Every structure is written in structure tokens, then in C-alpha cells.
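hi! just following up on the protien thing from before. the input was this:
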Amino acid sequence: MPRLLVVEDDEALAEAFCLALRGLGHEVAATRTGEDALDMVLVRQIAVDVVLLDVMLPGVDGFEVCRRLRARNNVPVILLTARGDPIDVVAGLECGADDYVVKPVEPRVLDARVKTILRRLGPRASAEHAPLRLGEVTIDSTALVVTRGDDELSLTPTELRLLLEFANHVGQTLSRQTLLKRVWDYGYDGDPRLVDAAVARLRAKIEEDPRKPLLLRTVRGIGYRLVRS
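and the predicted 3d structure came back as:
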């Protein structure tokens, strides 16, 4: 049973989320502050499969909680925001969130987003494929390990799935909509900013200079292409 952590300061809303998600087959814990969420995940190391994180929290806000989680833990994060402004959405994605939903949201929509992320946790590739080497970066799609030089990279499930998708199509341009469908399981209603934010985070880990990417190139107006440097 997937274990979810709901971080929501509105007690009534948090209780409604918990009841509905439990009814849909999830194990759910809840906390009302970002500090408590960080304590549960980073200090007490309570096992959590997905964090549903409200942005507007008292004290440490959701953006900062997400940044701190991402610095030390790869647990997937879905931001819950009452603000659909593009600036806020981009800020959330850039701090490391895997997805976002704008409140009010139906529990079944949350359930669908959670299940989509959980399906991405265990990407698999054919065992017959040898590790792919791109300059200093090596992608072992069988062991699901990515290294740069002698260092193993810590990738989130979304970042790993995205990189494997590119690795399976080296030299091919993949559009944002194609990546949304294959990596996020979204159709044409998906937000392409999810792709752009994830690519930016991935570049920060695999490129020597993310501002001048040599491996993961932008194809203006279309999407991205992974190339051999």
C-alpha cells in the first residue's frame, strides 16, 4: 500500500484529503507544518512514497521544504498550490517538485497523479543493452545507475526516467509533448513546463556547464536531443 505524506496547514482540508486517499487505497500520514514534514522525512526517516506538499505553509513554506527535501532525499513531491500563476508554478518546478496541482482538486485527480509517479519509480530497460557512455557520463539502464566520472549521480525518479528516455533515443529530437506522454503519462493537457524544469535539473547534474550544455541540447521550438559529445 503506497504511503503518502500530506503537508497541509488547513486542518479540514487535510482531513478531507486523508479520508479520501485512504478510501482509494493509500496509507496516509499528515502534518500541518513544513518543519514537521522535514523532521519526519529527513530526521526520523519515516518511509514515504510520495509527499503532497502545500505551498502556502506557515513558517517554512512549501518551496523551501521541497528544496530541503531535494537536497537530501529523492522522495517524489507533488506541490498543492492555490496559485496557478505561471511564475509560482515555475518556481515550484525549479525547486525540485515532480508535479503540481492547483487547488481545489478532486481526490481522484490526486490519486491519478500519485499513481502516475509510482509507475515511474521503477523504470526498466532491456538487460541486453550495454551501458551508454556520453563523454564522462555513463548510463547503465539495467542497473539504473548514472555516473559522471567516478561519481554516482543522485537522480530523482523523474530525472532518471527522463534520462533513460533520451538514452533510448540518442540523436533524436524528442518534443515536449512526446516526453510528457512517455515520462509523465500525460496527454496534450500536460504542462510542458514540467519538461523544461526537469531538463534544467538534469543538466545541472550531467553537464560540465549547464549554461552551455554539450550533451542535452535544446531544439528551439520543439524539445530536446541527447547527443554524443
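The longest strand covers residues 3-7.
The chain is about 40% helix and 20% strand.
cheers
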